Amino acid sequence: MSNIMAELVVTEFILLKVLLGGIFGFCLGLTGVGGGVLLIPMLQLFCGMSTVLAVGTASLISAMVKINASIVHVKASNVSWRQVCLLFIGAVPITILVTQVVVYFNQHPIHGELTQSFISMLVVVVMIGSLISVIYGAKKAESCVLADSHHSVKPSKAVLSGMFCGSVLGSTGVGGGVLLLPILNNVLKLDIKKSIGSSVVLALFLSATAAIGYAKGGQADSATAIWFVVGSFVGVPLSAWVLKRLTTRAIYAITLAVICSSLVMFVFVG
Fold it and tell me: Which Pfam families match (predicted)?
């Protein structure tokens, strides 16, 4: 009897992860937000993970899910490849460096607990900053028409933006939607749909880079990641169907709602 109950608990836990993966995939495809913002609170609240383990697992899930999400956005022509390449050049080296630093200090017998606290605080700061940035972008969209993907932007500006994103994503797992999306939209002047698609594609590469670093340090739960990815296969295609039917204003509103909900979850876990 006890074995049957144990199997039922395990099954329910797996179904919960699949459901959470579906929610994550839907939010990711619809708003570009989801990687660290949604996953870290979910993994801590429902899976009982520590902050750094949640960051590593979130990076792994994000990389795996964004393969599917990236294909969806590429087919929909929602990607500005020029901006993606420039951001990539600046972001990847910094992501590798910062990931190694976090893993090292997290495993340090003296600095491990301080590292957990610092990363948690940094995640909250990034979420709040991203919330403000998206609000700014929404107000700007109401007052003027943003330039298209051919808007002229200095390459150095895009590379520096990539370095900033890489440092944040590498240390917190947050940055795919809540950081890359506002930068692409407000700093590099892409429209909201191009910004969403480009942020998903770029975050795929950055999340994969971070995930490799955390996995090498034993800070990634691959089994949990797989079940989340299974659920995302339903959420991502559904989001693409919904996205075609939404106005720019509605997309901004949903993005703000996702970030706010994640921030509340993260604070509640803390």
Answer: TauE (PF01925)
